Amino acid sequence: MERGDDIRGELRDLVTALKNHISNGRDSINPVSRLSMKGEPTGRREENERGNLLKTMGKATARDRRTLLTLPGVREELGECTRCPLSRTRKNLVFGEGSARARLVFVGEAPGEEEDNQGRPFVGRAGQLLTKIIDAMGLKRQDVYICNILKCRPPGNRNPKEEEIKTCEPFLVKQLEAIDPEIICALGTFAAKTLLRAETPISSIRGKFHDYHGRKLMPTYHPAYLLRNPDAKKLVWEDVQKIMKIL
Ligand code: SF4
User: Fold this and answer.
1) Rounded distance from Cα 2 to ligand 1 centre (Å)
2) What are the residues whose beta carbons fall under 8 Å from the beta carbon of 179, sequence distance 6 or more?
């Protein structure tokens, strides 16, 4: 059987399972595990889960992708996550907030103290600055979607560890697939490096659109960096103007 037929068959199965799920009112489907189920040993299946999802989703239409994943479904799958040690020190898991149909998604690094207290993304001083940037773009927070690579606060706001990113990132990938935005704005070095799999400093990659699995990704400075370096605000403003031109 051709690979295209395979994918169409898998999508057909998934849509059928989703319909059953809706009519039965219970969780009868895990789209990611279904996508990676055929003919793969268990270890490799888990390892390749993210790659399989993106590969298959990349060949599906936007409508197909939205049918397969929903934000509430991703949130439900994440649950009261204990997949990495950050679960032991967090107060609240910070999933993300905003429009489930946002054309623009902001992705930061991880929750800080205030976000951990409130269970909401970007609500501290840096978050207030991000809200001002969004306002200046002529948008409201509820028009966009805001989330982080990590859903739990690293103690003392230390840098995320590679293992934590590896464990948590698949849920970000699913959030992005569920929302299906036109543009992703990566805030700061960690978000940009993680999404683009690049070691290049943010100063070299900001201000230009990069490809992220068929979507435009604009890296720019994190609002927390702007609080320490107000001169960089004009660079961020240049970057968001490029986003505004497309929106
Ligand atoms: S950071 Fe992510 S993987 Fe780790 S416990 Fe929180 S939600 Fe789970």
Assistant:
1) 38
2) 71, 99, 100, 101, 102, 105, 145
